[in-house]
Each structure stands twice: as structure tokens, then as C-alpha cells.
Amino acid sequence: MSAESAASVRYVAIGDSFTEGVGDELPDGAVRGWADLVAAGWADATGESIQYANLAIRGRLVRPIVDEQLEPALALRPTHLSFNGGGNDMLRPRTSVEHVLEAFMQVVRRCDEEGVTLIVLSGANPSAQLPFGSLVNRRGDALSDAVVSRLSDRDDIVRALNWYDRTLTHPSYWSADRLHMNARGHHRVAARVLGSLGMDAPGEWWALPAEQQAPALARGEYFREHLAPWVRRRLTGRSSGDGRAPKFGSWVEVSPRG
């Protein structure tokens, strides 16, 4: 039996660092993240193996996500595809909610054409911890509200909306850079996705014990260690994902753990 036919569920994820799993680092340095957790939780909940691929690349704007990842993902002939994007766009000086929304609707259209069940996510809201948080908050509110409005008549699209989750704004769900969630945050997102799919995640995923947090960096230290590298990449036209390949560019089989 081929890897593709080994299970009825074939789930592929596309997106940026949120979907790649940045912030949820394993001891060997690899990243895990909510999509990996969803694949494992899906297999555990159904008691059957599923096929899983993850084409997400950190640092990607929404248009490159769609242009570079959508068609390769659909070429795998998935049953389910999850999509999130726009977080990096919101950090740019000039961005348009309509521009991001157009990319979302292209994903909707192509999944409709291919008969693929779409799982739409919004990222969690990091704005309370950011020095430019009010701008991010306004843009995130506008984008999330626009996506909800545009999809209001599409009950067939699975929604896992994290932007409105006030619990996820607490610092204990975020890594030191304040832009990426830690393992606690990724587990809560995974629990929401599984719930949206009609499955129960392990109860503790909703609120893992908080990790011992390092002392908060002073403003100058935070700018030097986390914001300055980001600004340098913007000025030189580089991305944190340049040269990176997807961690699961083809199907891997995820088996029940129990």
C-alpha cells in the first residue's frame, strides 16, 4: 500500500512561521508547532493513521504563501488544507487588508475547485507585548473581522480563529521575541483546530502549565536582540525563511500514539 493511500485523511498545512511552528522548539532544535500537534491529535482521536505535510516557511508574506505553496499543496491531492497568512504583512509600514483578503479568497476558490476541505486560521494577537502594538491590533482586528464577514455564509469552511482569544494574549503563551507563541500557545491553538474539526484534544492542551519565564528584557535589550535583526532584514530585502525548504514537503504518516 502506498503512503498516500495508507489513510483516508490527507492533511496539508500552508503558511508562515506560525504554521511552521517557530517558537515551539524541540530539544534537538527542530520546530514542532500547532500543525504537527493537530496531525498527532487527529490520529489519536480517530485511532487511525493520517497523512500529513507542512509546506509553511517562516517570514513569508501572504502573497508568496499563496503563490509558492498553494498549488504544490493541492498537487498532493489532500482531503484537508489549513491556511493562515497576513501576520507578516501587518508588520509592514504599508499594507492593505483587502490585499490579504484577496489572497484568502484565492485559497477558498482553489480549494472549492479541487474539492478540498479548507481550515482557515487566524493567528493569536501579540499586540499587548509589542512596542508598536496599537497598529498591529488595529490591523489584526480589521483583517479578522473582514475574513469572518467574507466567510459568513460558508458553513463548509472550518474556522479556528485565535485572534479573538483573550487568554492567548497573556505573556505566558509567547516566546522571548514576543512575536511567536511558545509550546503552551501552540498547544492551545492545536486544541482549537481539533475542536473545530469535531474532535476532542487532550484537555491539558488548552492550558499547559506555564513555563518558567526568563526575566523580561529591558526595552533596549529587546530592541537589540529581537527587533534590530528584523529591521536589518527589512532594509536588506531578506527574510528569515530565505533558503529554507518545507519541513514536510511530501506526505509523512502520523500514527495513533495510544
Automatic annotation (TrEMBL):
Pfam families: Lipase_GDSL_2. InterPro entries: GDSL_Rv0518-like, SGNH_hydro, SGNH_hydro_sf. Keywords: Hydrolase. One of its GO terms (molecular function) is hydrolase activity. The keyword Membrane does not apply. The keyword Hydrolase applies. Residues 13-187 form the SGNH hydrolase-type esterase domain. Residues 238-258 are annotated as: Disordered. This is SGNH hydrolase.
